[in-house]
Amino acid sequence: MISLTTERLLLRGPNEGDIDPLATMNADPEVMRYIGDGSVLPLDRDRTAAGVARAQREWEECGFGLLSVVVRETGQLAGWVALTVPTFLPEILPAVEIGWRLSRQHWGAGYATEAAGALLRFGLIDCGLDRVVSVRHVDNLRSKRVMDKLGMRFGLETVMPGHGQPVAVHEITRAEFDAFEMTTAP
Question: What percent of the chain clears pLDDT 90, i.e. is strictly above it?
Answer without folding.
Answer: 76
